[in-house]
Amino acid sequence: MDGRAFIWVGVLCIASTILGYRGVEEKVDVGEEGYKSNGCDYFEGSWVYSNSYPLYAAGDCPFIGFNCLDNGRPDQDYLKYKWKPTACDLPRFNGEDFLERNRGKSIMFVGDSLSNNMWQSLTCMLHTAVPNSNFSLTQTGKLSTFSFPEFGVSIMFLQNGFLVDLAYEKIGKVLKLDSISSGDQWKADTLIFNTYHWWIHTGRFKTWDYFQVGNKIVEEMDRMEAFKIAITTWSKWVDSNVDTSKTKVFYQGVSAFHFNGRDWGEPEAKNCQGQTQPVEGSEYPGPSNPGEAIVKDVVSSMEKKVYLLDITLLTQLRKDGHPSIYAGQGSKLVDCSHWCLAGVPDSWNEILYALLLQN
User: Fold this and answer.
1) Containing domain of residue 313, as a range?
2) Ranges of residues in the chain whose predicted pLDDT is under 50
3) Domain of life here (predicted)?
């Protein structure tokens, strides 16, 4: 099978104009103090240069995309940074142990191309950990499945940019903010959901024509209001339909984009192109992302145990980690939304693994 067929799943978003596992046994706390795990907040920290990185060579995984080196990126320091929480160290990712802990189970990413970015990262991290273990990669419609038969583990990505319904009707494409009809596809031992950056697309990158809530249909509305209604619909679906004693549910947080150098103190920088180093320190000088607060508010209000991967800060600090002009496939667009692999999404999976060890 031609693995390149899977490289660009959902990557139409690449041209966007902008684009935890949080948890304890009790209800998740996503308040101002953040999630503490054994006294450590995994989502507060900074990026440090490390000769022990990257965790893998992207060339060993021809089935993934976002390989900026193969696409001609000349600098390589972006591969060498690891995420260092302020109060602790993340355990080194052990792919074979990850597979053993999930033996006989399935993991499904449901979301947009940032979910795809994380899915590709995890499949490569696991494959390079057990390079002699057979794997299969299949695609049926919008579902891509990477399987390790030896472990009985399936890592799936189901493309769904909004989580709520996008209906094709006579008037056009209608985004139904209070409706989910595809939830019967969301079946796995671990579910990792994500939606955000499609909501702020404009112009020719907008993939809908109208918003609908109840019987009311409008051509435009405040995007963050629409996003909050939709993610609240998703949260109610989870509360009503998922048995979290059997299925772990995660929300992959809001991933940052870098289209304005003023945000990180370089007003001469038009976007992420040419950036080769992270923002220093553990604070981002730019504006906060409104989607982050909405996600935290909704997840913290849920009845069921849902764990938030609060990746916003650690992605804000990585202005250097995007494909920019090295997205491949002949693209002439500057991609400051997705992430090179190896790279930033590996840290998301490292945190996922660290929290798995604790639970």
Assistant:
1) 3-159+191-202+241-358
2) 1-35
3) Eukaryota
